[in-house]
Design goal:
- The structure is a homotetramer of 338-residue chains.
- With 338 residues, chain A is of the alpha/beta class.
- Chain A has two domains: 161 residues, Rossmann fold (3-Layer(aba) Sandwich); 160 residues, 2-Layer Sandwich (Dihydrodipicolinate Reductase, domain 2), CATH 3.30.360.10.
- Chain A contains twelve helices and 14 strands.
- In chain A, helix 7 runs parallel beside helix 9.
- Chain A is globular, with a radius of gyration of 19 Å.
- The interface between B and D is medium-sized, with 24 and 23 residues.
Chain lengths: 338, 338, 338, 338
């Protein structure tokens, strides 16, 4: 059994992670941490865990975490991760980080988009980006894995096959993305109040969303060319799900059938990618680790459509997928059948 | 033209009030107040008011409010109202208070349910309770009107005709009430986050909701007997609307037709009460000042069902109805046609 | 491996059932039936099953079903079940029927509430009512199990411990029940359109909902006294979840602690019942086979609150729970960890 | 008073239209038609109209409609309009048609996109397209007005100022549009069931939505060049609202300020267009006749964002706006203050 700690357990990705890990036959959750007063039972923080996990939320030090666990999942806000992860690693515990802190490889880019100096810059260039469909081979020996962002995974999974095959231009790719509200976290804020989001639809962070450099970095690395995207996120009145409607320019004429085949070949043997013929709905992949992708044409314009559950394939599910690869378990353990 | 101030303009009831008052031919909104830094335009606080109201949110003193306005609508949280209303009144401006501060007539009951000593107790016994269907005659000369709560209005309007006719027992009345989330206000809190409320249904404040003593006081006064209710509120994943399903015990056998007729007689000439034959949906009275009521039997058990828009008939609409009566305007001005 | 058929596979309970059974290590789904033209792949009918189940929806005869499967789950509308189940049984296949057809034990009661003469009346008195928390011992040897209704299970699980302990009066029990929309099925109807249900709340079928006699029959049988309820269902704008707020009369004074303990004792060793201290939300049991129950007092009035996922614990989950008991598998197989 | 008939009164746009017209001081609704049996009261068809409109839904002939009304609003499905409108016109009654039947000017284009031969082709070239912000001058003398589609109005209002100023290329304009579900109508269909739409997000009719030729025709006419768009509609789990995120290519460098000013100049004096600085939400224009528009840049890519209420500014509100212009009333009558 692998002993696992959940660091920062009060949010939605932590809850989702716990639910998945409770189904994992090789995992024992040994610690859940948060800074709440009085070490409340986790079932008080997340009532859905009543009768399912009998642990208290403790305010543990990095050393205590490393003593209790072989692998820690860090579900902290960006900035908070770099404050504790180096110490957890130093104490001999592996870490899968769900924050954005170790995703970018260039400290200057981090500072530009996050407005803060990165406090652990030497790890940036060397940390594995945990998108198993692209980087599975790098994961097994790692001590730290940077779990991808939700918009990021959706966009990268949709575009990587076509960029790698040089079927689309690497620049000016328009990504019109739509997300459910749970991706916004569990800290009370005006813009994620029910009465603000319900029956409402708007774009936000246009031209400045922090997943932009992450998408570009990973696609550039994967396709060995400078990729540049136009990324527009929208908030949708639903709990979970991201759908990206993507408008790339073809480098040469191609048919829908040819493009779908390119995608199917690219994702051959990848258990969580479904290249589908129909127009996918977020509801079809909700509560699963699947990413559904298809392509269409409108006149000569190619449209790539991809969707996934932002809390699972976009966060906690792929974290467990990474964990499985890290520990040498079957990649689909606890994730399939969904 | 009556000059009107909105005191505490950043919340949902204030917004709703402004929208209604903008349709009122006899009203000029002359001030909107809030404690926000920098006196932002009201359209910054409420983007839906863009192009509709060109005022800034100012942090005005009670005296400044009274100088600018003939009537002030106070949309403050309970406790905050008593801090400013006496001064606004002293400065010669009438007030319609949408908070709970002046609804109860007994300071001891206030203290019991709100956990604070009332700081303006002498006004408690003498303030008009602004439910025009019951107390219209008392409103015209008032300087201060206590606007009713949303659950309260729904429950009272459903029960008053039957209690006054002594058709139902005054005690043990079960009120199973369901409310949309906007009634919970616009201050960020965990329990009104989209991701907590959406796709969720639960009871809350069971046995201790503060509208309980208000319902009992007003129904007791209206029917001249000691009324006692069992009140259970539930939170429903929708913006607006309250529906109360009420289970009273009949004092003598009666038919559905007889009870409906009693209600229709009671509300004869009341423009906002619709005693209907069908089972009403909150959607049918949403965005209007109507309250829909019907009765049914399940075996011998009487069931009274009432619903209204908690932001309008349950708050800002009835406030304007009170305002119309106070100022001698047609009761339906700015409210009908809806 | 047990070979399983899903009869009537195009609806929501069938979809949910398939998803659960795909996680069952002892089950092979060998047939899915529907009357759709052209035997479409099940993934065309339910796109979420893409890549998860490679079967076509076939229009099979009862004999063909029995040839392919050891156990058939019937997900047909009431009335349709009695047309095929006797033939499936006659051909040697066991059946778990999710319709209402075999739940009532008296053909006259069936006719009164369903408006049709029952065509297989001899089986009514002898069919096991598949609520395992009450009737687990009767399930193993059965050839036919009547799977309970969703409102029914919620109400029965909430009330059985207190009725059996004679702590509450058996008559006049008010059940104010609220349900998500998926319980209304997948056949297009005006009253389950998005634009009718969304942002709407209403009671329906007041005094005449067909789960009423079912609740009364089972509770009467379980507590050996004539139980009579007042049942009021409401439609809530959310996909799944039922919450029942129940107002029984105590037979003698009792405390909240005593009543909770009575419930905990009653459900000792039952893995899917969580007697909780907090006020449960439907979201906490959504997508699980749990039923959460608590009690509260409002003055002297006892309030019992219970909730569950109407598609799982209220339909397909309990069907698998019944299947497990029928086949001698661990009761929680494919259902826990949730 | 202008006597008005609503032809095809059972749907959502008809309901919305009735609500607006009830506020119109110069209108008397004299007939509401539908094919329902038994001439039910309109309040039976639309319970929200209880106490507000005392008419029965009658199955009237075109001649009867023309006898009762000066202006008829046709809220029929496409194809059904052409069957009755010529006869209503022939009988001397003016018509505002909310269907798609008279929007396109070329019968061949109609046939290509709607799959049917147009049965009244001679009127196609000559019917006014009722988008008052562009064609107000043509409306007054008309006998027939083709009311625009909802996606169409959103797209045209967003793009017309920039196309007319030749600031953007006329081809390859990507319109990623998102719509609430009420636009899908009130006829029960699988894809507009609550349980299909709620918590779901998908694109639909990609490359073949019928508003495509309408957008292109009107923008081409308005800007006197051949406009060609890539139009992708999405269904959003909310009642009302359309938001279009549009990606045009600039013909020359321009700033956000310059583009906003171009828009403000273009819509000078147009009471329903709000060119805003903030990112608009559909909720801010919901239940109003406003269209909110802004522009942003993401790197060099221009993004135009527009939204409106698809039932009001996208259908019934603009229909009344057209009606006002047709009859010589103030354009904003019954529409502002909203």
């Amino acid at each position: 059994m692998v002993r696992v700690a959940i660091v920062g357990a009060s949010g939605y990705t932590a809850l989702e992670l716990i639910k998945i890990l409770l189904r994992h036959p090789q995992v024992k959750i040994t610690a859940v941490t948060s800074r709440q007063d009085g070490s409340p039972p986790i079932a008080t923080v997340h009532p859905s865990l009543t009768g399912r996990l009998d642990l208290r939320c403790e305010d543990l030090s990095p050393e205590q975490i490393a003593e209790r666990a072989d692998v820690a999942f860090a579900c902290l806000p960006h900035g908070a991760s770099t404050a504790v992860i180096p110490k957890i690693l130093a104490a001999g515990c592996k870490v899968i980080d769900l924050s954005a802190d170790y995703r970018l490889s260039d400290p200057a880019v981090y500072e530009q988009w996050y407005g803060e100096v990165h406090t652990d810059p030497t790890r940036l260039g060397s940390t594995v980006y945990g998108l198993p469909e692209l980087f599975a081979s790098k994961i097994p020996g790692s001590e730290l894995i940077a779990n991808p962002g939700c918009y990021t995974s959706t966009s990268i999974l949709a575009l990587a096959p076509l960029l790698c095959a040089k079927l689309i231009e690497p620049t000016g790719i328009i990504i019109d993305a739509k997300s459910g509200v749970m991706g916004g976290g569990r800290v009370p804020k005006l813009n994620t109040l029910f009465s603000e989001c319900n029956e409402a639809l708007s774009a936000y962070s246009v031209g400045k969303h922090r997943h932009t450099p992450e998408i570009e970095q990973v696609l550039s690395e994967a396709s060995r060319q400078q990729v540049q995207v136009v990324f527009t996120p929208h908030l949708i009145p639903m709990d979970r799900g991201i759908l990206a409607t993507i408008y790339p320019r073809l480098t040469r004429p191609a048919t829908q059938a040819e493009l779908l085949q390119t995608m199917r070949d690219f994702y051959q043997g990848k258990p969580f990618i479904r290249v589908v013929d129909h127009l996918p709905s977020t509801k079809d992949s909700a509560f699963t680790n699947y990413c559904d992708i298809t392509v269409r044409f409108c006149r000569e314009q190619l449209i790539v459509i991809a969707c996934l559950d932002n809390l699972i394939k976009g966060a906690s599910g792929v974290a467990v997928q990474n964990f499985n690869l890290l520990c040498g378990f079957e990649e689909t353990t606890a994730l399939l059948p969904a």
